[in-house]
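Before any further analysis, we paired sequence with structure tokens, yielding the entry below:
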Amino acid sequence: MIITLFEILFWACLLLVIYTYVGYGVILYVMLKIKHALGHREPNPILPLDEQLLPEVTLMICAYNEAEVVEEKMRNIRALNYPKNKLCVMWVTDGSNDRSNELLSAYPEVRLVFSPERRGKASAMQHGLQENQAEYVVFTDANTMLNADAIREIVRQFMKDNVSCVSGEKRVAARHSGQAAAEGEGAYWKYESTLKRWDSELYSAMGAAGELFAVRMSHYRPAPANALLDDFMISMLMVKDGHRIAYTKDAYATEYGSANMHEESKRKRRIAAGGLQSIWWLRSLMNPFAYPIVAFQFVSHRVLRWSITPLALLALVPLNALLVVFDGALVYAVFALLQTIFYLSALLGAILNSLGKENKWLNIPTYFLFMNMNVFIGLPYLLTHQSSGKWEKARRG
């Protein structure tokens, strides 16, 4: 009887892990193939030929002590292929006490918004939006560089039916080969970007990343001031109101990955904590009667990753060991061998990384395990940061 219970738990955990990281993507792919076969494919709108008919857009950069990237970011902004008289460049530097404001004063096109108090990114965004006059606002980080046509592609997405938020693609670069944090994060984001694109084609992307996303202000609702994932909350509140998040790979933001795994852990534990916080705030989206498609997407793509699946992944180890000892079936011995190979690969990747060695294939299991381990750190992080939206920045490579 006890062995039967262990078997049920083992297979339930295994199927949950497979569904979360592989199965959901397969199901999405099949659903889209069927949808396209039935002729339901959303056309890409055509932008006005007359540039004066393009809407005014505010490009907002909320930055805290980012003096070292101001010059590079402004070069990138000046290279954007969007009419200069239609683009308001706004920097919000609340709490910054480095040379950011001094450096930005050299750029006449910059609208600088500043308050000496640092209250977190969500509050900084609200401060900037009080000064905004455009219907469309594009948010991006100071240390991410946009492709030249990013603003045009985002505007194009807003021309689609019921789209109130647009998520661009995040691309992660490594300064040098063998940088585990950057290479592991880069591989993860390639897979994540594919899922976001498929989510968007099915109905709506499940959240936007702060590196590059945009909102329609007439449908905008602010995130709580203590939100740890302000970008995710802002975008998902629009979904909760019945609107869609469009995803486009043709507008992308490139940034260097974290300098090392220690720095990356600062990001991951905040994201894990913010994920748990967001799940609670957005729990009504899990109601399939009120949100039939969104509930399926939200639970499959977000809720499981940020809550139950890491627990299932951890539980597989002792459950597998017990079944090998007390059941003895060959299938459990095979799974035990596969788990051993996986965890040894992740450990070897971590050791090589600490020694400055290169192995990009081992970086993938290392980052995957590292990412799930940080979910457990997320809960104590949330308990100590739930009253404030401020967080410690991760140093980039």
User: Anything to note?
Assistant: Strands lie at 57-62, 87-92, 110-113, 136-140, 145-146, 163-173, 212-216, 244-256. The chain has a mean pLDDT of 90. The first helix runs from residue 2 to 37.
